Each structure stands twice: as structure tokens, then as C-alpha cells.
Amino acid sequence: MEKILHDFLNHLAVERGLASNTIISYRTDLTGYLAFCRKYNLHNIKGTNKDFIMSYLFQLQVSGKSPATIARHLAAVKSFYRYAVAEGNLSKDPSSDLDTPRLPQKLPRVLSVQEVDLLLNQPRPGEPAGLRDKAMLELLYATGIRVSELVSLNLEQLSLQNKYIRCSGKGSKERIVPLGDVAARYLTEYLERGRCKLVKPGKTPALFVNQHGGRLTRQGFWKIIKKYAAKAKIEARITPHTLRHSFATHLLENGADIRSVQELLGHADISTTQIYTHLTRKKLREVYDRTHPRA
Fold first, then answer.
1. Is residue 132 part of a domain?
2. Contact 92, 45 (CB under 8 A)
3. How many structural domains comprise the chain?
């Protein structure tokens, strides 16, 4: 089973071109499943069946895993078995009759325009790190890109003259995302007065660098945004994707069509983008209830 798992992960990386974080998630979940198999002396994939897989899911439930986590594990197991059947390691998929449970849609936390302004005004652009942080936050809100996409940006992916970035998203799919004037201005200031003081010339192609001159990490960015949210006294829980969610919602609230927002966010399926329409409908309801005389 370990050999099949190794081949499966290579298949995800090479043939399907999935992002490294997605492959790590598959590896983690399936390593847990194989450990469960070994616990019961099952080392051959042909020795597993539907009841055994259900026992594994029950064990996850008993251990306190959330419904979303259990659904993710099941999805990984089902993909693993489909691959095993396709490669001739199994004649029948024992997971084919197991349905992934439908989970209630969790609406993402979205900041108001006033809260975004408050957050984006926290960095101190008088120092190199402050210039970097201001440019990062403005870029995130201007483009709606993922944090993983932000920290992986290289200098050559930014065109300030034409005001766009070339962004490599999930599955290594590249897209062009436009920049606004404000983000372009702060990026220019960061490149002229900030980045050059944080990094030695030619040391890294990364657009955003840490205090040691290396590429900024997701964890590093997470610490930065938490710090500024605390300074802004924003009480709601902030996540690295909060500005992405706010970007999408504010566009839709101001009349952008959902297909354009889907393209900007890099969503493969429009159903992923449609979660933001729930948020805009909710706001419309609140406005109606507050303003209509017979609401």
C-alpha cells in the first residue's frame, strides 16, 4: 500500500499538476489511513473493504475530528482507491458507495470597507518593513489573491507599468490580475525605498522579503496581519484570507458580475465563487429591513 501511495502522490504532482500544499494534505490524510490499516495488520490494499473504511471514519469521529476534516479524509481515501483501480491494483473500488457528506456552507468573515481602511492604514511606511507591509496589504485587497500566491510572487511577475501581476494559482494555473492605482503606488514606494534595504542585490527573486532578506513565508505574513488587526482594534477574527473574502464581496456589492470575480479569484468552478453572493444577499436583506417602512 505504501508503494501505491507513493505512486499516487507522484501522479497528483506530475500528471494532475496539483499544488504542493494540496499534495501535502493528501499525503498526511492517507498516511493516517495506512497507519490505521497497519494497526489491523492490513498491508495489502486487496484486504480492505467498505466496512473497514467506515470503521476508519468512525475512529476519526470518536477522536474528535470535525465533520469537515472527516469529509476531507474520505475524499482522499476515495481518490486513492480510484487511482488503485485505474492502475490495476484493485478490480473494484470499495469506497465507491460511500458518499461524502454535504457540509453546511460556512460564510467567510468579511470586513466592512471602513474596517479594511483601518487595517490598511496601520503599517508605518517610514521604515522598510512598514513599506513592505503596506504594499502587501494593499496588493492583497486590490487583487484578492491567496496568501500562498502573494508570498510566492517574484519580481518578474509584477508589471507596474501595465498595472498587473502574473499569478500562479492552484494546480500551477497562471492568471493575469489587474492592479489599482493605490496598490501600484505603494508597490513602487516599496521597491524604491523598502525592498532594497531588506535584501542584498540579486539574493532572491522574491517580491516580498523578510527582515533577513529571504522570501517571506505564509507564517510570517500571518503574524504580520494579526499584529495590524490588533493595532486596529478589529474585534472579529482575522484570517490570512480575510482580505481575499472582502475583495470578492465588495466587488459584488458594487455591481461586479460573478464571472469576472471568479476569473479574478482563480476559481476553477463558479460554485466556489457563489458563496459570496450569499453574503451580498444577506446585506441586501439587512438594508431592506432597516430602511423599508413596512419591512
1. yes
2. no
3. 2
Q: Write down the catalytic residue from 73, 244, 245, 250.
A: 244
* Selected catalytic residue, list 166, 218, 241, 283: 241
The stretches of 107-154 forming alpha helices (DSSP H) are 113-120, 128-143, 147-151
Task: Kindly report the CATH number assigned to the domain that includes residue 166.
Answer: 1.10.443.10
In the residue annotation, 170 being an active-site residue is answered as yes
| Active-site residue, 223 included | no
241 is catalytic: yes
What pTM was estimated for this model as a whole?
A: 0.64
One digit per residue, the tens of pLDDT, for the chain of length 295 reads 899 999 999 999 888 888 888 899 999 999 999 999 999 898 888 889 999 999 999 999 889 888 888 999 999 999 999 999 999 999 999 998 887 766 556 667 788 899 999 999 999 988 999 999 999 999 999 999 999 999 999 999 999 999 999 988 776 678 899 998 999 999 999 999 999 899 877 689 999 999 889 999 999 999 999 999 999 999 878 887 889 899 988 988 888 888 888 888 888 777 777 777 766 666 666 655 776 566 5
